[in-house]
Amino acid sequence: MSFEPDVLQGFVQRYLDTAARGNADDVAALYAEDATLEDPVGGGEVHIGRQAIAGFYKVMEGAEVTTELLSFRAGGHEAAFMFAITVGGAMRIEPIEVMTFDGDGMITSMKAYWGPQNVTQL
Amino acid sequence: MSFEPDVLQGFVQRYLDTAARGNADDVAALYAEDATLEDPVGGGEVHIGRQAIAGFYKVMEGAEVTTELLSFRAGGHEAAFMFAITVGGAMRIEPIEVMTFDGDGMITSMKAYWGPQNVTQL
């Protein structure tokens, strides 16, 4: 299974746009039913399944969020990208994320690599 | 198992420096015996084991290679990073790579995300 780079970038842009709109269920709906999410990688917690993933995004609801894709790389049915997310106009984080997709373009796994050293107070 | 970000960045910088020196066995020696390598992701081939990995790097031997770390993110015992590699002064590629490490700092898996659209002719 493989997607053209432009198609994968579209999936990622849709994810970033949806995350910026701030509805947790809408973001979770981009994930496959049995998807996994690890954010941050090494944080010790992997969220498994769409319901758990919705719970993860709930913490951002109500905050003013902006997202911007900075760098994008495609590979088969996977994508790796760097992006910026600002939260409440107070904080900017620049993670590198890796996502895998199923044949329907649903996210099957997401891993976000970032730490305190990638956070800027605004 | 987890490493401090600075330690992980040291592993990655050592890898990039070794790759630039161009000896395939030296690069392969940074990998665990049973490591896996997929470069590019989606290319259809996963190299398994240090010997196969040495074979992968053999193709670069003899070429003038430079490497430069552009962005680095740490997570537990993993690292995600963007870097530039120039080959023979003729071509510059900017992949995003993800690596995992064992407790001894050996690379246990490497995945490189890039495609023709990330290659510049110099």
Secondary-structure topology with pairs:
Two copies of one chain form a homodimer.
Chain A: H1 5-21, H2 24-28, E1 31-38, E2 47-48, H3 50-58, E3 65-75, E4 78-87, E5 91-93, E6 96-101, E7 107-113, E8 119-121
What proportion of the residues of chain A is helical, as a percent range? 25-40%
Tell me the domain tally of chain A: 1
Q: Oligomerization state of this entry?
A: homodimer
The residue-averaged pLDDT of chain A reads 96
Largest interface between protein chains, with number of residues from each side = A-B, 28 and 27 residues
> What is the CATH level 1 assignment of chain A?
Alpha Beta
Count every helix of chain A, treating DSSP H or I runs of 4 or more residues as helices. Answer: 3
Biggest pleated sheet of chain A: 8 strands, mixed
Q: End-to-end distance of chain A, in Å?
A: 41 Å
Keywords:
homodimer, 122 residues, alpha+beta, Nuclear Transport Factor 2, Chain: A, eight-stranded mixed β-sheet, 3 helices, 8 strands, globular, Nuclear transport factor 2 family protein (chains A, B)
